[in-house]
Amino acid sequence: MTAALLVIDVQRSLLDEGPWNKEGFMGNIRRLIERARDSDAAVIFLQHTGVEPDASIDDSLGRMADDLVIRKDFCDSFLGTRLREELQDRGVDKLFVCGMQTDYCIDTTCRKAASLGYEVILVNDAHSTFDHDSLAAEKIVSHHNRILRNLPAGTGSVRTMATAEVGFA
Questions:
Q1: 150-153 and 156-161 as β-strands: parallel, antiparallel, unpaired?
Q2: Residue 141 — left, alpha, or beta (φ > 0 → left; ψ -120 to 50 → alpha)?
Q3: Can you give the pTM of this predicted structure?
Q4: 128 has which bridge partners?
Q5: How many CA atoms lie within 13 Å of 37's alpha carbon, on the beta-carbon side?
Q6: How far is CA 106 from CA 65, 89, 96, 144, in A?
Q7: Residue 50 half-sphere exposure, CB side, CA atoms within 13 Å?
Q8: pLDDT (tens digit per residue) in 148-168
Q9: What confidence tens digit (pLDDT) does each residue in 52-111 have?
């Protein structure tokens, strides 16, 4: 299997809003990026165009010139983008997913990728969101980790795994 790390919407304005467990999930994303690079796995940044006023990818992630950046307009990282073609060109069939927001872009991208036949690993301690009127962010993250922990989707699937368990080789 050939793996890639999808880092979704870790953008300055979203981080400035104060997502739940910011330091914890950001530290885990940095560890995942380092581990992916050490294993020569692709690191792919998804960047939501609707983030304002600062849509830039957070500098603390150490994005490199050869990391692929794909701009997107929707929660689904595949919709209207070249993500699927880029993954096919690289022979990727396993995706590790991290970033923001759990209840929008993370959930939608995991489910879509699985329906396209990918083995998807949602890194359960490397994604976050914000409190909402009806539910605290911590509960939203916990809920999504629970419902996506073992989700079959035809030839694809979603399951969860902690950062400490992730291996790209």
A1: antiparallel
A2: alpha
A3: 0.97
A4: 100
A5: 14
A6: 24, 23, 11, 9
A7: 5
A8: 999 999 999 999 999 999 999
A9: 999 999 999 999 998 999 999 999 999 999 999 999 999 999 999 999 999 999 999 999
- Say yes or no to pLDDT of 1 above 90: no
- The count of residues in the chain is 169
Distance CA 161, CA 47 (A): 23
Residue 156: strand pairing partners: 153
- CA distance linking residue 15 with residue 51, whole number of Å: 11
Burial of 84 (0-12, 13-18, 19+ CB in 10 A): middle
Two structure tokens written together for 76: 């689904």
Please report which helix (H) or strand (E) contains residue 107, including its range.
Answer: helix 107-115
What sign does the dihedral 17-105-49-6 (CA atoms) show? positive
Q: Are 83 and 116 in contact (CB under 8 A)?
A: no
**Peptide bond just before 19 cis, omega within 30 deg:** no
| 132: Cβ contacts below 8 Å, ≥ 6 apart | 103, 140
Ramachandran sector of residue 99 (left: φ over 0; alpha: ψ -120 to 50; beta: rest)? left
